[in-house]
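INTERNAL AUDIT FORM
Audit reference: QA-55
Scope: verify that the stored structure record matches its stored sequence.
Auditor: D.O.
Record contents follow.
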Amino acid sequence: MSTKIYDGIQISNMTLTELNDWYMSLRKEMKEIALAQFYRGVTRIAASIFLWQKTNMNLCPYYHGLDVKKLQERKDDPKTWDARAVFAYADTLAKEIAKRSANAKTHMDNEPDFDYEVSLSIFPLTDKILGIPYTTNKALKSCITDNSKVSEYGYWNNTDCPSSISEDAWEERKKDWDEIFKYSGIPANCGMSIVLLDVDSVDWWRCPDRETIDNYIKPHLKEEFEYCKIVAKQKIMDKMWEDIKAARDIDGHEMSTVLEINQHVKEHPEEVEEEAKLYLGSLDFKTFLLEGLEYYCTNF
């Protein structure tokens, strides 16, 4: 029988009271991380909607849940793209994604950055406490695996013992996990299961301070600049094509000319950088983020 417990952990021996205190400290830490992730997610969605409207490029990784048609129907109404309206819409979408991830039947339906469901199965043995954490959210999982009271204790028999673990220690792990699963091979049917966090237990409404808001904006300015470089590159290529067409009286896209334009852009990245800076500045992107976040964080 194949045994694969890649996420197995060992927890320091402690009393039930101490274990409960440890759970509570984990919950507090996870709520802080989940809240920060959620605000960053809202900012990312709002930024993507803004740039989508400005550039007509689909930049949002969460667009499968976005009612683009509804936005397009209101594209001529300035209020549709008002920073406050966009952030309000992004908040609604982010909460829908979080709830969908909580009810996901498979990992394919899950958005890890919006997955706030964390549980921990505990398996007490005579001389030690083992466990298995469950979540697709890497940051929240790290709260458990990187905790000072936790050490790695996985076991699998489909490959050789890791070189960092002695044969005797590997055999001990095998015996421990065999003991845990002797009545059932399903972890949920063994030991105890603790819900450390769920989508309904995160305090969504706590307002971040200004420093935190600024920290949300910084990565987006850098990230969106990369998207602006894509637009800038296309703008440069379009202008070169129009100039060449006028100078050479060309009709259609001749392959040699296309290659010539592509080569020019490749050899002159500084032109793309400069055009991208001008383009990002023309969008007034930072003002949009500041206005939207300050409104959102004080009114939601």
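Auditor finding: record pair retrieved intact. Strands lie at 4-5, 9-11, 118-124, 129-134, 150-152, 155-156, 192-197.
Action required: none
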